[in-house]
Design a protein that fits this description.
The chain is mainly β. The chain has no helices and 14 strands. It is 0% helix and 59% strand. It is globular.
Length: 110
């Protein structure tokens, strides 16, 4: 994947193009815990072999997407865009395209 966030602190990712990444969970970004803020990022063309083509949010991670574009991501099982399991979205603004991907849902959860 593009990023793996697993910290008790806060991570800020700004003005990034997260593209063409592949992994098991969270093709573009995998949030395991902690707090993260993505600002003005484009997350596209990523793939997860299980969940969360663009991102997978798990285990209490608190994530904020601010003016981000999520498009053209794929997941074999669920969440072609985003997969959230026991996480939290905080004041998020997403621009989405759900025309591509094997699993086309923007957001799935358990």
């Amino acid at each position: 994947g593009g990023f793996f966030v697993n910290t008790a602190g806060t991570v800020v990712i700004s003005d990034c193009n997260i593209y063409a990444c592949t992994t098991y969970f969270g093709g573009g970004v995998y949030f395991e815990r902690g707090t993260a803020r993505l600002q003005r990022c484009r997350i596209h063309g990523n793939r997860a072999d299980r969940y969360g083509g663009a991102a997978c949010i798990r285990n209490g991670a608190q994530v904020s997407f601010e003016d981000c574009t999520v498009s053209g991501n794929q997941a074999v099982w669920h969440g072609g865009g985003l997969r959230m399991e026991h996480g939290l979205f905080d004041d998020s603004i997403l621009w989405c395209s759900l025309t591509d991907g094997k699993s086309q849902s923007l957001l799935t959860g358990p």
